[in-house]
Design goal:
This protein has 121 residues and is α+β, with helices and mostly antiparallel strands. The protein is built from three helices and five strands, in the order E-H-E-E-E-E-H-H.
Length: 121
């Protein structure tokens, strides 16, 4: 699948979804829950209750396509603070790769004494 990244919108269903749903069930959720047209060509993201499985539904001019990913360990996010209901294409790619956008941590914090020693040398 090749998308022009500037034109694709990604909509996230913020309620947990039964992952047994396929094309028809997910397209009905797009219409009823997200109030969007599933034939628009945009991506629609659904996650199960445990946030260990994700499905992405989109229409590519010839029919529906469905991506699925299941994590062996960890979760996509915590349901107490899910991401926004709309994200950009880059954020979706990072989410599928396991990278959290809003979270930045430094791996190594230098002590103040080390910094002073470096400055005085």
């Amino acid at each position: 699948m090749f998308f022009p990244e500037g034109r694709i919108r990604v909509f996230l269903c913020r309620v947990p979804v039964d992952m047994r749903k396929s094309f028809d069930g997910l397209s009905a959720l797009v219409r009823n829950t997200l109030a969007q047209d599933p034939l628009s060509g945009h991506c629609f993201v659904f996650v199960n209750h445990r946030a260990t499985q994700i499905r992405v539904l989109y229409w590519d001019r010839t029919g529906y396509s469905l991506w699925a990913k299941r994590l062996e360990r960890g979760r996509f996010w915590d349901w107490r603070k899910p991401p926004a209901s709309e994200m950009d294409w880059t954020h979706l790619k990072l989410l599928l790769e396991g990278i959290e956008v809003g979270r930045q941590r430094r791996r190594y914090h230098r002590q103040a004494s080390e910094k002073l020693a470096e400055i005085s040398i």
